[in-house]
Amino acid sequence: MLSKRAFLSGAVASGVVVASGVKAQTQTVTPTQGLPNLAAGATPISVAERQARIARLQEQMQRQKIAGLLIEGGTSLTYFTGLRWGRSERVTAALIPARGEVVIVTPYFEESRTRETLEVPAEVRTWNEDESPYALIAGALKDRGAANGTLAVEGTTRYFIIDGLKQQGAFEVVSGEALVAVCRRIKSPAELALMQTANDITLAALRHVHANIKVGMASRDIAALMNDATRVLGGAPEFALTLLNEASAYPHGTKTPQTVCEGSVILMDCGCALLDYESDITRTWVYGEATARQRKVWDTVRRGQEIVLETAKVGVPVAKLDAAVRAFYDKEGWGPGFTLPGLSHRAGHGIGMDGHEAPYLVGNDPTPLEAGMCFSDEPGLYIPGEFGVRLEDCWYMTPTGPKLFSPLARSLEDPI
pTM surpassing 0.90? Predict the structure, then answer.
């Protein structure tokens, strides 16, 4: 599944700049000197917390009679072990058995790097280039007393790994997506603190950008200003989607070049990472004087955000949050449903170590809200051929109701 980060990064890498596309006259970027480092006091996830995550996972596996969970490179590997590893044809993975110590399987020449970055106690087993990592995994499972049990694999695991495991013929291979979701979807106080700081950084960077927009700036100029400010503030930029004028009518923009002029709609969807945790904030405003139509759409979206939050209560299925705002939009003459002009995407998504995580605020997701779940709130409205408005803030569920990581935009004139 292509994440927002990967989609936007791919667009830039391929030379197609979303909503800009061609070279424009580069504006003088306002220096970011004086912006504070908001990440200076951020606390990484502790070894003890990662071990508690493993213990919770093992408890689930024992209850469900699952022998172990295999996790290859990605955010789930980091979540449980602290190991940050990319994906290639060479398999590096963690086997978390239902009982006993974690086993890391990695190429022989990667052993030192693996041990250097690993953050929990684990046995490291290596394989040479002419050996099978799958046989090594099967052997590790056998040594943990589960040679013929059921092996779960993390939900994003690539098929060639699953196929290699199946060819060992010693155990059944099943999806471990639900096992991982039970752990990851409820955020701890330490996770919430990191997400709060990441959102603080993104909001401060947006405030800096909003104050320094000039006529003639192209999307790429504004995105560069956003990314520079994010770095100075202490975050690692993930995306700075900047949609100008008609491009704002399409959630991820167009290839048509756009620049800022009087009356321009400016939509910025931005996020950063801080110690593995993500932010995601969108603001839309008008450069200069807004029209009555622009103001009406902006106010409607702002009210849509409130309706999502008002509907959020512990135990309520997340689908109802999307349904509530969609019903309001229908009454206002938008839609119906996903029809344009209107809201063509879900009202929000889960967020944490990935910018997009389950559960999702959409009609076919019945997951009940629980304290500790984190989401975006972004019920945009889009008018093809004219403009669009998206306002987005992230929030987390508490026993008494939702709590925002960033305050909702005050007004069209004061959107940050």
Answer: yes
What is the three-class DSSP state of 269?
Answer: strand
CATH topology for 47-184? Creatine Amidinohydrolase; Chain A, domain 1 (3.40.350)
| Range 292-316 average pLDDT | 98
Range 275-278 contact pairs with CB under 8 angstroms and sequence separation of 24 or more: 275/42, 275/44, 275/45, 275/194, 276/45, 276/75, 276/78, 276/84, 276/194, 276/353, 277/191, 277/194, 277/195, 277/198, 277/352, 277/353, 278/195, 278/198, 278/238, 278/351, 278/352, 278/353, 278/354, 278/355
Query: Which fold would CATH assign to domain 4-30+187-404?
Result: Creatine Amidinohydrolase (3.90.230)
State pLDDT tens for residues 50-86. 999 999 999 999 999 999 999 999 999 999 999 999 9
User: Are 242 and 282 a contacting pair, CB within 8 Å?
Assistant: no
Tell me the helices (H) and strands (E) count for the chain, helix number first: 11, 17
CA distance 224 to 376: 24
